[in-house]
């Protein structure tokens, strides 16, 4: 079976030099790669030699132009969410492998950053990869299903305490499950914050990425 080839915007290293690391940003439901690529603006001073790639998810949201989904969320049934993330994983894996090969770096020099549904994907592929990624940052998301953990990269979870779409409890449960699996994971709760990324979360995400990719 031929996999769908993902496309999306990217941003080369701020330094103008060949990339020494890679950040893959994964947007949420009903968004696109341009949305999450904007994070590079906040982080590229800390990561001057990092290439940012932000693929559009493989499925269009029916009836909307330039809006994509990693999988359908007609229902929030946990089993269906896990099925969707599992089905989309090979498509995303193929894109990341092609970017790593093109840039001549390794998975250890690559970090995954997700928002909402993108966090579900980042945790799905990041924890099941046999070769560990440098790190994972998950904003306002969840660990869906029961993925077979094959590697244990450091993980930073960030969630607003007033998130009306994906409850804070989703990240708290993900934290518990990853701690039990022996993963180096932290959870930061952004106060008075809904389903978005607040400035404190941006700052913590940038510091985390600089630590895991510049070391």
Topology (SSEs and partners):
Layout: E1 10-11, E2 21-26, H1 33-37, H2 40-43, E3 50-53, E4 59-60, E5 68-69, H3 78-103, E6 110-115, H4 117-128, E7 135-139, E8 155-160, H5 168-180, E9 185-190, H6 199-214
Parallel strand pairs: 2-3, 2-6, 6-7, 7-8, 8-9
Antiparallel strand pairs: 1-3, 4-5
Helix pairs in contact: 3-4
Largest sheet: spatial strand order: 1-3-2-6-7-8-9
Low-pLDDT regions: none
β content, as a range?
15-25%
CATH topology value = Rossmann fold
User: Could you tell me the number of beta strands?
Assistant: 9
**What's the total helix number?**
6
Report the oligomer.
single chain
CATH homologous group name: Alpha/Beta hydrolase fold, catalytic domain
Major sheet characteristics: 7 strands, mixed
Taken in chain order, the helices and strands follow as EEHHEEEHEHEEHEH
Kindly list the characteristics that best describe this protein.
two-stranded antiparallel sheet, 215 residues, 9 strands, Rossmann fold, 6 helices, alpha/beta, 7-stranded mixed β-sheet
Task: Report what the structure shows.
Strands 1-3-2-6-7-8-9 form a seven-stranded mixed sheet, with helices on both faces. A two-stranded antiparallel sheet has the order 4-5. It is built from six helices and nine strands; from the N terminus they run E-E-H-H-E-E-E-H-E-H-E-E-H-E-H. With 215 residues, it is an alpha/beta fold. 43% of the residues are buried. The mean pLDDT is 95. It has a single domain (19-214), classed as Rossmann fold (3-Layer(aba) Sandwich). InterPro entries: AB_hydrolase_fold, LYPA1-2/EST-like, PLipase/COase/thioEstase. Keywords: Hydrolase.
